[in-house]
Amino acid sequence: MKIRFYRWYNGLLASLLAFLGYGCSSEEPNGRDDDMLMYGMPTTEYQVKGSVTDEKGKAIPGIQVKCQDTFYEPNIFNRDSVKTDANGKYNLTFNKVETTLKHTRLVVQDVDGAENGEFENDTINLNGAEAKKIKDGEGWFNGAYEVNVDVKLKKK
Predict the structure, then answer these.
(1) CA distance 152 to 79
(2) How crowded is residue 72: how many other Cβ atoms within 10 Å of its Cβ?
(3) Share of the chain above pLDDT 70, in %
(4) Residue 71 carries which DSSP code?
């Protein structure tokens, strides 16, 4: 009687664990041992870079540039920000679950005050931006893309 109970109990427990997504294997699938460890969501790396200038084409250093995800509440998924260098150039890298920039915008803000002049803030929707593939993807990594966005700010 005990043996029948333990068989039933082990079968139920194994079924429950399989239903929840737990599994094991004594063999390496496809000759690779990392396939079983790939949990999570596929990601794509984006490198957004360019320059920030005034209306006359003069480079503006110290301007804050960041990307925001607009699919969800914009303040939740703010990416790290960078500031433009002495030549007005910026380079911002981030990962995204989506394979397009459909719900992404570039926010450019003058945060240093009157130090380099005062400029109006700008927001650019990256939905139609042309992304150039710079690295192929493998597994859950969809690859890396580069997007060039040059921004001209108006003086206040």
Answers:
(1) 22
(2) 10
(3) 79
(4) S
